[in-house]
Amino acid sequence: MVTHNSDLPASPTATYAHIVGWGMAVPETVLTNQELEAIVETNDEWIRTRTGIHERRIAGERESTASLGLKAARKALQISNLLPTDIDLIIVATSTPENIFPSTASLIQHWLGATKAGAFDLSAACSGFVYGVDMASQAIRSGSIQVAVVIGAETMSRVMDWQDRGTCILFGDGAGAVVLKASPIQGGVLSSVLRSDGSGGDLLGIPTVGSADLRNPDFAVNGHKMHKMFMNGGEVFKFATRVIGESIDQALDKADLNIQDVALIVPHQANQRIIQAAARSLKVEPDLFMSNLDRYGNTSAASIPIALCEAVQQGRIKPDDHVAFVGFGGGLTWASMVIKWTGNKVVESSGPGFLTPQRRQFSYLLARWRADLRRISRQISQFVNNLRPGRSRIQRLQDKLDRLD
Ligand code: COA
Q: Quick check: helix, strand or coil at residue 148?
């Protein structure tokens, strides 16, 4: 059971959506700028001075968007002190989903054992995480759901054209997640601004299955390779520096705050020079912006939740701080959000020991076994039904398992 701290202002009528858990996961493999020199014609000095990036993480053979997202979600759940069965909705913001469908979110829902959750993927490129948190917080504030997990997860290394030095030096892999929870305590997500300008769709993107005739494996859309990222770096740079300050101002206006009220801005991690230009346009010091792109590069939808986790770890966000998120990327899309950080201050553990790491681990295992059992029984049932028409015992077992949910 979740209770609320009495020292925080509670509203008798309104519901607020608070971030009560956060987690991140990055692959172990590091790809440094020096190592990139062996892949494309580039050099460490150029990459550092033009982007601020020193290294990035690359997913191993057995890692994927869903496996990184799952790890991040489990960590976030642990901090929130909630169980997978408490989750009503899972949103995965990604440009590198496991499949067109089933969604990466459904895979994570299954692996988590979140048997009461709806799940879907959200495509808004590097703005996707902010879009996802907005969608989830609206659902919570409307009373339609209580708990949501929003994940930004990417394996950008799989959609890089490793011959294109204009893009492959920028991106990396990783995932970050937050748990949002309903509470009568004032705070949490205060405002957001979501925008799109599809006229800039030709500036960066990844052509995929719906694009055109796929029978030709060499098919390219407007000269761009299928399933590989293309980008007009200069134009994206101008777009990003224009919209960051503008949309943060709009989100602050909506929340009735100004930039002096903000303790930290967690921006999409694309380029240190973009962050510096945005700081100039907002007339603030660059260190008001969280930056960790030197170690991870641009992890697209995962970059904001990863930076958020590190900001919390570093003590740069404290309860009652106002924090702004700002994302921008393909679409073109951009999004800003202002939150009042309560952290897991609104969640207290009750029933000591109920959610010990062992109990939590066991609940994951149990959920996994049940899901695996359901899949196996479905397969056996299909097999038996093929052999002999009519209702089988296996079918009845399957029905029983379905009723357990
Ligand atoms: N290594 C070495 N040289 C490179 C290079 C690389 N990886 N990439 C480009 N160059 C060269 C260019 O060929 C050009 O050479 P030239 O002057 O002889 O023609 C020179 O460096 C300058 O290229 P330019 O593209 O003008 O560099 P830039 O300062 O605009 O930096 C980006 C390029 C991509 C780093 C920058 O435009 C950028 O960060 N854009 C935003 C991208 C982004 O954030 N995208 C994701 C948004 S979600």
A: strand
Could you check whether the bond before residue 389 is cis, i.e. omega within 30 degrees of 0?
Answer: no
Active site residues: 126, 268, 298
Could you report the per-residue pLDDT of 96-118, keeping only the tens digit for each?
999 999 999 999 999 999 999 99
Q: Could you identify the residue written with the tokens 């893009």? A: 167
Question: Is the minimum distance from the CB of 297 to ligand 1 under 6 angstroms?
Answer: no
CB of 125 within 8 A of CB of 184? no
The residue extents of the domains of the chain are: 16-347, 356-404
- Nearest CA residue ID for atom 29, ligand 1: 50
Q: What spatial distance separates the first Cα and last Cα of the chain, rounded to whole Å? A: 20
pTM of the full structure: 0.90
Domain 16-347 has CATH 3.90.1150.10: no
Q: How far apart are CA 83 and CA 364, in angstroms?
A: 9
Residue indicated by tokens 């469908």: 101
Average pLDDT on 61-84 reads: 96
Return the structure tokens found at 143: 């009373």
The secondary element (H helix, E strand) that includes residue 71 is: helix 65-80
